């Protein structure tokens, strides 16, 4: 390596750093000069590469999540104006409707459907979470037998599609073909008609219960299995019974899982559609607007009123978001306070 050395007899520094600007620099002592990165290399590494890796997810989110929501909001402020018989080109035009669709969406039919869904949720959600917690605690007990088979039997209805489950239970509810009504009639018992207007909400809740308990049970049971067994052993050494361990240790530990399953169940309740729509041909107790989503479907595809259907959809989305936020605010401190 060719180096530039200090001339003999000069007053240069031993470290190689010249004392005056005229003295040459000893590059062997200073080492090679740092390589300069090409202009723009840092910008590509810090900005372009991360955003390039995020680009597919961002594009999919904008195309399939943000764009449909934005388009629904735009439709909710429009209505179709028909001239004459609505035939020919230019007879149907789309005009700005302001908040007229939202005012029309909050009619008596929508409020009645909200009331029916709230009653359906009050029956379904507490019963489903209670049974899911009970089954999870029983399967987690040391005295339980055939736990794998029991888990499979309880979870299996969740794998059945909602339409198939509704048809299955619908034929069991139908007095003309149901074996239950055949048995009760043979025994001389006057069984109530579940497809009647007074009991149909319980029939629908039973279908949701049959299909939803297994999923919630698995979530709670998985949370229980993540708890160290030393806690249970210490409680048993202190003289706690299995019921005391369940009520004072297991239930508080799995409370965050209960909150999560409760939130999912609440959102699913507000979106009930398949069960009443499938049972509707079997009974006159279910109208085309029994649930809010059924009203949206009727407005969009039967009345061809996309503006009103879009406005109702936006209202349902806002109500779901508000209820979820309030629910989390109420239980957040107790369920997740220990994680802070």
From TrEMBL:
Residues 1-16 have a biased composition (Low complexity). Keywords: Cell membrane, Membrane, Transmembrane, Transmembrane helix, Transport. InterPro entries: ABC_transporter_permease, MetI-like, MetI-like_sf. PROSITE patterns: ABC_TM1 (PS50928). SUPFAM superfamilies: MetI-like (SSF161098). The chain crosses the membrane at residues 53-77, 84-105, 117-140, 152-174, 194-221, 253-274, 306-328. Signal peptide: none annotated. The keyword Transport applies. It holds the Pfam family BPD_transp_1. It is found in: Cell membrane. GO terms for biological process: transmembrane transport. Residues 114-327 form the ABC transmembrane type-1 domain. One of its GO terms (cellular component) is plasma membrane. Residues 1-33 are annotated as: Disordered. Its main location: membrane. CDD domains: TM_PBP2. It is a multi-pass membrane protein. PANTHER family: ABC TRANSPORTER PERMEASE PROTEIN (PTHR30193), DIACETYLCHITOBIOSE UPTAKE SYSTEM PERMEASE PROTEIN NGCF (PTHR30193:SF41). Belongs to the binding-protein-dependent transport system permease family. This is Carbohydrate ABC transporter membrane protein 1 (CUT1 family).
